[in-house]
Protein: NAD(P)-dependent oxidoreductase
Amino acid sequence: MSSSPLFHRLLLTGAQGRLGGVLRPRLRDWATVLRVSDRVPLSPAVHEGEEDLPCDLADRAAVLALMEGVDAVVHMGGISREDRFDAILQSNIVGVFNLYEAARKHGVRRVVFASSNHVTGFYRQDETIRPDAARRPDGLYGVSKCFGEDLSRYYFDRFGIETVCLRIGASFPEVRDRRMLATYLSHDDLTQLVRCALTAPRVGHCVIYGVSGNKHVWWDNRQAAHLGFVAKDSSEPMRATLEANTPEPDPQDPAAIYQGGGFVVMGPFDD
Amino acid sequence: MSSSPLFHRLLLTGAQGRLGGVLRPRLRDWATVLRVSDRVPLSPAVHEGEEDLPCDLADRAAVLALMEGVDAVVHMGGISREDRFDAILQSNIVGVFNLYEAARKHGVRRVVFASSNHVTGFYRQDETIRPDAARRPDGLYGVSKCFGEDLSRYYFDRFGIETVCLRIGASFPEVRDRRMLATYLSHDDLTQLVRCALTAPRVGHCVIYGVSGNKHVWWDNRQAAHLGFVAKDSSEPMRATLEANTPEPDPQDPAAIYQGGGFVVMGPFDD
Amino acid sequence: MSSSPLFHRLLLTGAQGRLGGVLRPRLRDWATVLRVSDRVPLSPAVHEGEEDLPCDLADRAAVLALMEGVDAVVHMGGISREDRFDAILQSNIVGVFNLYEAARKHGVRRVVFASSNHVTGFYRQDETIRPDAARRPDGLYGVSKCFGEDLSRYYFDRFGIETVCLRIGASFPEVRDRRMLATYLSHDDLTQLVRCALTAPRVGHCVIYGVSGNKHVWWDNRQAAHLGFVAKDSSEPMRATLEANTPEPDPQDPAAIYQGGGFVVMGPFDD
Amino acid sequence: MSSSPLFHRLLLTGAQGRLGGVLRPRLRDWATVLRVSDRVPLSPAVHEGEEDLPCDLADRAAVLALMEGVDAVVHMGGISREDRFDAILQSNIVGVFNLYEAARKHGVRRVVFASSNHVTGFYRQDETIRPDAARRPDGLYGVSKCFGEDLSRYYFDRFGIETVCLRIGASFPEVRDRRMLATYLSHDDLTQLVRCALTAPRVGHCVIYGVSGNKHVWWDNRQAAHLGFVAKDSSEPMRATLEANTPEPDPQDPAAIYQGGGFVVMGPFDD
Amino acid sequence: MSSSPLFHRLLLTGAQGRLGGVLRPRLRDWATVLRVSDRVPLSPAVHEGEEDLPCDLADRAAVLALMEGVDAVVHMGGISREDRFDAILQSNIVGVFNLYEAARKHGVRRVVFASSNHVTGFYRQDETIRPDAARRPDGLYGVSKCFGEDLSRYYFDRFGIETVCLRIGASFPEVRDRRMLATYLSHDDLTQLVRCALTAPRVGHCVIYGVSGNKHVWWDNRQAAHLGFVAKDSSEPMRATLEANTPEPDPQDPAAIYQGGGFVVMGPFDD
Amino acid sequence: MSSSPLFHRLLLTGAQGRLGGVLRPRLRDWATVLRVSDRVPLSPAVHEGEEDLPCDLADRAAVLALMEGVDAVVHMGGISREDRFDAILQSNIVGVFNLYEAARKHGVRRVVFASSNHVTGFYRQDETIRPDAARRPDGLYGVSKCFGEDLSRYYFDRFGIETVCLRIGASFPEVRDRRMLATYLSHDDLTQLVRCALTAPRVGHCVIYGVSGNKHVWWDNRQAAHLGFVAKDSSEPMRATLEANTPEPDPQDPAAIYQGGGFVVMGPFDD
Structure:
């Protein structure tokens, strides 16, 4: 017996990106039409039930068109690493503004916003913090994600547009370095978290860390229960191999001291 | 007996603006050279002890030149009201980034950053909040000030540049409406607060509301004591006249419900 | 091998009520004598090991007699829905006072008091609260349960009578509406919670939400661990059917905005 | 030059009581008509600008008539000491319900509710508490004041009726015992606090301790600043005489241990 | 396939003590060399992979020698019960100072310090506390453990030596009394906790309660997740037998009121 | 008219020390007999109303004799600077234990204990902390004062002996360095604080920073109001001269970064 999908039209931005590519096939069953978008036409090309609308997020008119007829958005678009300010500015600041303006004009009611753990990357790895801890971004990328969290708060208080800000950890097929033992978010857990964020009955505006059930954690993430998320995976089974194959970190290395890891010494790039 | 000024060269941006114009003559004695700057050459023209460097904050190279040789900055520049996004973007986002990049390159150690109470304008007037309450900006202007607070936190954590973020209330010669009975900051108190922020021995990165000793307050501002600020003025003596000359607010009016007053229904302006 | 029951004489009030009827057979093994009571003689009639003492809670002398010889009380009696003030006054205010006075006079040491989530029903569904959050009752019924919590606190501070206030969610055989996906408390979990509250070694005066391990929760209920409670059931398996058979809630409907659901617009009834 | 009074018709209940009698002449100038009320016709009889409406608070119809045409209420009525439950029930529970129902029916927008420090009387004298500390009433009187605070919260959340709950300390012409050195509220400070509570622009529902600027305090009362209250008096000048004329308290005496003083061992009275 | 051990040389103090004896064989595989130490030569004598260095902790020079060449320390040494002050002074105050001085001189980077739940034993059993609650030691033994926690904090802030303070509950093969139903820490869970404390990537200075997953708990121990600890055992299966074989506690007995149990009335011993 | 003194016999330890010498003449009027004590006989010799009992705090029997017949103690004795561990051990650990044991044996009910701001000296100068912040001592001296605070807490919980722990700032006739602008406690304010601590009706066990009303403060000291303390002096009038005569601190100097100033790099002294 088949049930009807959760949404009529669901928009996935950044669909050609690394995590967008992970989510794309997994979101397909959740909507009658999955609108996928990135700067360029997608490859592989659209499947049945998909429609592809290439779009530059910095182009206000294009974003307005992109959002027409959409029930909800999973916003993975934009830059997801430290970069030159001007690039971040266009993608993550202008782009996010364009998205929310379009949501307002078209009456879109919910956004899942890919924020980042780098909004708090300057906390130490020996601290456990909650999502409402004062922000300590570790670079311009992190600052741009702060902007998205604040802007979406405004659109909720002013217009009632609900947003779940997911401060995504490190979401890869496998654990790649020691820091990821704490920050790992499996692709399945990411998918489940996005689903919770889209379907929880009433989310208002909230901020949640996206992280699997790792043995060592830096984030007190109890609010995730409000969304109904329960992690299924963990970095732990990958620990032994990882530790055998990577050198001991230098305890004086800022990348080993702060939660942001290598990001804390990366920026700012000179334009 | 004369003492030497506090700084060799102090920079005041936005010197032609409303509050910049208030501060300009009051800062003159604090430095051997007061560098004043706005988009256009200042009028009245420079006095002895001043130097005028007109500068568009969105022009990275110009801001770099502006900051050369400066000991500390009082950053009043940028837009200080709700406006179109593109204007705010250039002045308050690009401009602030340019300022901190220039501070980093020239080794400037302290900035007094004019933030705004509009970063928390969507709290209700019957709530008392602290500076570390989660932000609830009431417009794009407020969101841009959030950006400045986060960016300056990054430059402190990464490079040790100290910033005092002053969430300035309503600083006018007199109380102009009922909301200002709570948010009033006299020009003398503003001056004193800027002086404390410039001279307190160690400020790290901190956030303080700028408000006089008004009878009704919305902000628990005890951290101001860390800077040594003690308000001297109050809105109270102006209450009777103000209330006699202004109508009762409509209790259903959002401008009377939220701390941001009229700002909460102002934006966003269509570009 | 059989062990002796937990209590000699255990009193269950409201035994003819909906939840009282659920608990009655489940409590039978915990005491040598289960005293059951409601306004009217119980039907089905008493089993072996039970004794039936009908009693109007508003009748002080009757309640005093009811409590004689009792080791502990599970107080499910009184009104458990919004109602006219005068009815609530007699059952939930006068009645609870009578109960604690009788406990004091007879030296009863512990009460499990059926409070209600409606003492905090005016929080929003997108907020997660703890049991010590300021109360926000959603009706006269909720206010009466606040009274019971405060009165029992007094009897603990003054006379050492221990009380566990259980803010019971929605305890039905199955989930009946969308709100219950968050507030559902299975009959088995209710039973287990009552047992924990009766037998935990030292409870003082405490307040706990009574809720199963539902996927979406509104209440941070960690203190329940102090009592040793671990939920076994969840509303989640009933979600799909429920959502298929009920319309989408109107997001502007107060019953969909506040935790109290329909209660928030129900009262006060005109007497 | 004369200004118009603050209210057209202001109601003072309990006007014949101890504190009602203190407030009566002081409130007279704040309204065109001061409606005064107690169980019996007032003596001294009404002055110009007063109207006397005797009323039993437990009489719903009488209270409804009492509240007609009223702009705001200072509710000093009811019992203000430990008493038999049935008396407290009628005055402080039924009576307060009647008051708020009448406020709702007549559209009265603000109430100043005389709560009491006895809602937290079971805290120790060596603790400093805030108004949002969990309640620990020290008697049935205190429990009844909890009821009034919760009920008024409901009428605010449901109908927007604003209430300032004043947890009045010990308001007498002079300090009468050692406990009052901490709890003293001068008649002038009481008057000023009532005025603040009536006139602060937006109070929502809030709870404030009513206490002068005594040297030793038990209550962290910063929220009073939101109302604009600044104490003018203090118990300190009366200390020497008081201490010379009263014996050292027995440190084992509960009245010397708990904030509620003698109240903590007073009740409950047997009916 | 065998992996290399976690440490080259790991030191276990108090190896002849009750818990030291439990840990000794379990730590053997974690290091190439397990240095074991107590006041007297160990029996049973050393195994392969062990070296035995008897040492009086109060002997500074001996402790200095003991710590040479050590990578990490599990400090179970000292007195672990209430005792005369002079004995505690030498073992738990002078001894701990000697240990940290030696760690500093030899560059040892991490210590697992056996603190005790008795640093907070004067909280009541009906309270749930977090590790950062103000200390309330229940005897001189508890005070000496406070000293160790503070001293190790200093050595972290000053010299970067990391310490995990484990406030160990009651770690025995089986539950021996009713208090242990709450405080029980199985030997396996103790072992696992020590392993987490030794190997978690970055612990800074932290304080964790050591307790199994018991049904009734007094300690909110979420920070343990930062170390990656998950309890595997529980006191619950031993409850029935225990309760059948021990009398009901007297509710007026301080040992039944306070978390410290019998310790709260034990000291101070007269010297 | 003369009133009787506050105490019959008041003990001042450390009476020959720097602050003991300040307090000695000021305490004389508060007691019929002021017992003064230090390691050596005092000079100047005793005045009328004084009695001199030289005593080594590490000598248990001598301390027991010292405390006989005493109503209250101002414990200024012991070492008040960083020192070798063995010296601190005898004076500040053994000595304090001896003092409390003697208090217990003789029924002394209140102690004013000279603790120190160095129990939290490893917080940064740009942080504002409360007395209940986790301790971060800046040396062995600070650790020893932590010990005194914990030990006195135990004697309160166990035996009801009240203690006010005064974390004294820098109490000198004048401000001597830039750090003292924040930590200055005038001799008059010290005196007043000691008086409050001795005479406040019920202090339980509490911790207060001892600091004048300086313009820049690091400590949120509101609990001092519970004792009735109001600072009369401030470091501010001495600022200009001080700043003119001392060099700018090096911002990288730990003494300028941490609240403990030079203490943070002083210890531990090699024995």
Observations:
- The two ends of chain A are 56 Å apart (CA to CA).
- The domain at 7-265 of chain A is CATH 3.40.50.720 (Rossmann fold).
